[in-house]
Write a structure and sequence with these properties.
α9 (270-281) links the parallel β10 (251-255) and β11. By secondary structure, this protein is α/β, with parallel strands linked by helices. Helix content is 30%, strand content 16%. The longest helix is centred in the N-terminal third of the chain and has 16 residues, at 104-119. The strands form three sheets. Strands 3-4-5-6-9-10-11-12 form an eight-stranded parallel barrel, surrounded by four helices. A two-stranded antiparallel ribbon has the order 1-2. Strands 7-8 form a two-stranded antiparallel ribbon.
Length: 364
């Protein structure tokens, strides 16, 4: 996905209306658990989750002043039954340069968002989206793997929402430029600090360690785990890397299909990646936690004979045909691919219109 620039963020914040109501009363949806390759509710029936990502809490301490309104529109007007909320481990603890309260207001806002979603009988994925290469407050952003501070994040957040039936935990957003062994065990990684240009070496943490960290807190919530290659590739999990969870409610594996070339896999068509993922979904539960087309940045080959709208519509048809759970990226006017054109929440014609139409199936 692409992130908005600060000037556009300020313009959006100025236009949007802050939702100022009190936190809604707690009224959680049915608890979820994994059985085999399915996600089930407390009655044992398969669950269909269809929803949207609501970005900004990873780069903004106050969600740009309109995150509550965005989430409210998503669940009440668009009828999403799941929200994915990207978070920053640094902002959770008040380590960002603009924070001066130890993260108290940030954590309180996350609580209000969770309560809002839950009170509307929907689910929410709390997603560790941005980390810091093991250095609090330094190069807060998207990195190749989680770090030792990510363990501290989950040690603190997981107990706060332990066993809340509305809450799922997404271990780490889009592991990238790593091997399956690094995904599983962690290790020493080297990246470039995007602000200073300095080379930074840090101790990366494998996703199983974050999984064990959460379970050690007593939280049994369903956990979401994305694969490598920007969460596009999950096949390696079937090679002895499944996260065994006898003490919890189970693990669902996340994929992010976008129409651009991926390391090892190249540029796959919708039929190609859906066939590959179906082989995985026949054995383990799958959720598509991001998708969307951005042809201006990811040009289609002429042989595809499609455009953003065509790709998005065909992807939605494919997700429905396979009965996969999905969460579209993103309910923000500048975090591309965008579902809305502006802060009046008008759906984008090539993407948002079709996602909103598909979300109406949640009312059936």
């Amino acid at each position: 996905m692409k992130f908005p620039v600060p000037a556009l963020l300020s313009a959006c914040a100025a236009l949007c209306v802050l939702f100022a109501g009190a936190s809604p009363a707690f009224s959680a949806p049915a608890p979820l658990h994994v059985q085999g390759n399915q996600l089930l509710d407390s009655t044992g029936h398969p669950v269909r989750l269809r929803g949207v990502n609501c970005a900004s809490m990873e780069w903004s301490t106050n969600g740009e002043g309109h995150i509550l309104r965005t989430v409210e529109v998503a669940v009440k007007n668009w009828h999403a039954n799941i929200i994915r909320l990207p978070l920053s481990q640094d902002r959770w603890f008040g380590k960002a340069p603009d924070q001066h309260d130890g993260g108290a207001s940030y954590r309180a806002l996350v609580r209000r968002i969770v309560d809002l979603v839950s009170s509307n009988n929907a689910y929410i994925i709390l997603d560790l989206h941005w980390s810091d290469m093991g250095h609090w407050g330094r190069d807060i952003g998207q990195h190749r793997l989680p770090d030792r501070n990510s363990i501290v994040f989950w040690q603190h957040l997981a107990p706060a929402y332990a066993n809340n039936p509305a809450v799922l935990f997404d271990l780490y957003n889009e592991p990238n430029h790593v091997t399956w062994d690094e995904w599983y065990r962690g290790g020493r990684l080297t990246e470039t600090d995007r602000k200073s240009g300095d080379t930074v070496t840090y101790d990366a943490v494998g996703l199983p360690e974050l999984f064990r960290t959460i379970r050690a807190t007593g939280a049994k919530n369903v956990i979401v785990a994305g694969g490598i290659n920007w969460a596009f590739e999950v096949d390696g999990i079937l090679q002895g890397r499944e996260l065994s969870d006898p003490q919890g409610d189970g693990v669902v594996y996340a994929v992010h299909p976008y129409p651009h070339p991926y390391e090892h896999l190249g540029l796959e068509t919708i039929p190609q990646w859906s066939a590959r993922l179906q082989k995985f979904a026949d054995r383990l539960p799958l959720i598509v936690t991001e998708f969307g087309s951005l042809e201006k940045s990811w040009p289609f080959p002429p042989s595809w004979h499609t455009n953003d709208e065509g790709w998005n519509r065909d992807t939605l048809r494919t997700l429905e045909a396979h009965h996969w759970n999905w969460v579209a990226w993103d309910m923000h006017p500048y975090a591309e691919p965008c579902l809305i054109t502006g802060c009046d929440y008008t759906p984008t014609p090539s993407f948002g219109v079709w996602v909103k139409q598909a979300l109406a199936k949640n009312l059936e």
